[in-house]
Design brief:
By secondary structure, the protein is α/β, with parallel strands linked by helices. It contains ten helices and eight strands. An eight-stranded parallel barrel has the order 1-2-3-4-5-6-7-8, surrounded by four helices. Strand 5 (200-205), helix 7 (211-223) and strand 6 (230-235) form a beta-alpha-beta unit. Helix 5 (130-150) runs parallel beside helix 6 (178-195), helix 7 runs parallel beside helix 8 and helix 8 (250-264) runs parallel beside helix 9. The radius of gyration is 21 Å and the shape is globular. The relative contact order is 0.13. Mean pLDDT is 93; it is low at 11-22.
Length: 338
């Protein structure tokens, strides 16, 4: 009797301790920044059964537990290169939160696309001195973060810049002047932490399989004292030069993830990934491989994987790397997140 009582006490002790042990949920995410204008245009999303359903709910049914949203300063209303205003971003973040999803905010610091080919300064910031530019960046970041907070959303992660191998907010933030680029990065970091200290700040570079590229960029970020918490990577085999077969670069991605953690003592995430919508099985296999590589990062420092615009069906977007078919339903590729 005494032995059974002791066993029961031991079990109760374990149950009391377990809730105190908290491991961060692995992020299985989707950037769905096109969604508001897709809905406005009348696009109908259907679940696996062909029934009309809210897109975010469909994504959640396929294992997606986090949503990424890009934010543009003063966007136009063009279907493909507009929208993503502060107001739309906040509304989308609220929708995601209501479904129990985590939120990532991606500050492009432009009125439209910011990526390795273009980092165009917002029109409202043209003609400012460098000190004024830094203040404008801080104020804008603070304003968006405050609007999210007032709406009851605390982003789990926030990007300062989008795919910035060459810098951001040209010409002042080009990598030719790392000192100025770092000042801009740190203004964004400071504004985010002033509103939401618990949000983790991401710096984001493309070609996640390219270790030389990442070492060069983050060595400089370290040298010039850039402030950040997480290294974000894009990985698109489709856009790589030469053979786009993911099997030729997936090990390089895995090795780079581990190197970033050991070299800079930072956490890592694949914040953008995508595969061809016409090669569904291949994209499914690629996603499973990417998720595996991120989960293999030591000490749980591989935080998650985000698909870029999985719902952005080619019939609407003309984009070839979604996870959505012409029938309005997700393809099998999205099942990789289940």
């Amino acid at each position: 009797m005494m032995k059974k009582l002791n066993q029961l006490i031991s079990l109760m002790t374990i149950l009391l301790i377990l809730p105190q042990v908290s491991y961060a949920q692995f992020a299985k995410g989707a950037d769905v920044s096109w969604l508001p204008q897709m809905e406005t245009s009348g696009y109908i999303f259907r679940n696996d059964k062909g029934q009309k359903e809210d897109c975010l709910s469909i994504l959640k049914e396929h294992g997606i537990n986090a949503i990424r949203l890009r934010t543009w300063v003063n966007p136009n209303d063009n279907p493909q290169s507009g929208h993503c205003s502060k107001e739309e971003t906040v509304a989308m973040a609220v929708r995601a939160k209501k479904l129990g999803m985590d939120v990532m905010i991606d500050f492009h610091y432009s009125d439209s696309w910011a990526d390795p080919k273009q980092q165009v300064k917002p029109k409202a910031w043209e003609g400012l001195s460098f000190d004024q530019l830094k203040q404008a960046l801080y104020d804008y970041t603070f304003d968006v973060m405050t609007a999210l907070k007032k709406a009851g959303v605390t982003p789990k992660w926030v990007q300062v810049g989008n795919e910035t191998p060459g810098g951001m907010i040209y010409p002042e933030g080009k990598i030719e002047n790392w000192g100025q680029l770092t000042q801009l990065i740190n203004k964004g970091y400071d504004a985010i932490k002033a509103v939401s200290p618990e949000s983790k700040v991401i710096l984001h570079v493309d070609q996640g399989n390219n270790n030389e590229r990442f070492r060069w960029w983050f060595d400089n970020a370290t040298k010039y004292n850039a402030k950040y918490d997480i290294i974000g990577l894009s990985y698109y085999p489709y856009w790589l030069e030469g053979n786009p077969d993911y099997k030729l670069s997936i090990n390089d991605l895995g090795n780079n993830l581990k190197d970033m953690v050991s070299r800079y003592n930072k956490e890592v995430m694949v914040v953008e990934v995508g595969g061809e919508d016409t090669k569904v099985q291949n994209t499914y296999d690629m996603l499973k491989a990417v998720i595996k590589k991120v989960k293999e990062v030591p000490a749980r420092k591989g935080l998650g994987v985000f698909y870029w615009e999985p719902q952005g069906a080619r019939r609407w977007s003309k984009y070839e790397l979604s996870c959505w078919g012409n029938d309005g339903r997700p393809t099998k590729a999205l099942d990789a997140f289940k």
